[in-house]
Automatic annotation (TrEMBL):
One Pfam entry name: ABC_tran
Keywords: Amino-acid transport, ATP-binding, Nucleotide-binding, Transport
Molecular-function GO terms, alphabetical: ATP binding
Domain of life per record: Bacteria
Record-annotated ABC transporter domain positions: 4-236
Protein name listed in UniProt: ABC transporter ATP-binding protein
Stated family: Belongs to the ABC transporter superfamily.
Taxonomic source organism: Agromyces neolithicus
PROSITE patterns attached to this UniProt entry: ABC_TRANSPORTER_1 (PS00211), ABC_TRANSPORTER_2 (PS50893)
Amino acid sequence: MSSLEVDQADVYYGRVHALRHLSFRVEEGEIVCLLGNNGAGKSTTMNMLSGLVRPRSGAARWNDLDLTTAKPWDIVSAGLIHVPEGRRIFSTMTVHENLLLGGYTVRDKRLIDQRLDQVYELMPRLAERRRQQGGTLSGGEQQMVAIGRAIIGGPKLLLLDEPSMGLAPLIVKQVMDIISAVNTHGTTVLLVEQNARAALKVAHRAYVVETGEVTLSGTAAELAKDPRVVEAYLGA
Ligand code: ATP
């Protein structure tokens, strides 16, 4: 069984100790969520897994790949695809052109076409807007393009950094349903969220990260009932 394993990872930015002995696992087929407030270290964790930030100590492995030394290009080519916070779609390119950018590591044109069909089937709203410029899309539609672009790359493990950010509750639900569907089609998902309510509905398991370390973990159902999570992340 393939899995992602982070063991006692420490990341520093100069004197800032951003990740402190961070450890967690994601098994194949799961949706696992890292919950945490601003500055908890969620984006740093994602950037470490994509090879953009290197830990000073500790391990991060995905199957046989050592993520602490592998090049970002090789990590993407192996199927670990990161959808960064803030979507970063190109505003003057169409939806279709933005999606095609996700295929930059894919040599087989037919595979790209097949995956484009999958994306348009999963997100019909993008099919309707395929010729519309990225910058004119709503926030939810831009998030769909960001997820769709990752799907074109053929993710085995999808890293999603705060997909609900800035979206109205109804749109958050639509995006979470898309994440669930992507997972059902066979993609393992690591989801990073401040929106614990939405994330715990879609995740199988979750870890709470506070100032760079894991303070709680369990199944999503367990954490949704945990008084510490309810008080700190779910509100009244
Ligand atoms: P947010 O949800 O606000 O993006 P986060 O949980 O993703 O928060 P990170 O962005 O990973 O948190 O930041 C973790 C810590 O590292 C914070 O204290 C942040 O200020 C610090 N940090 C992040 N990037 C840098 C950087 N490039 N240089 C210095 N400190 C940084």
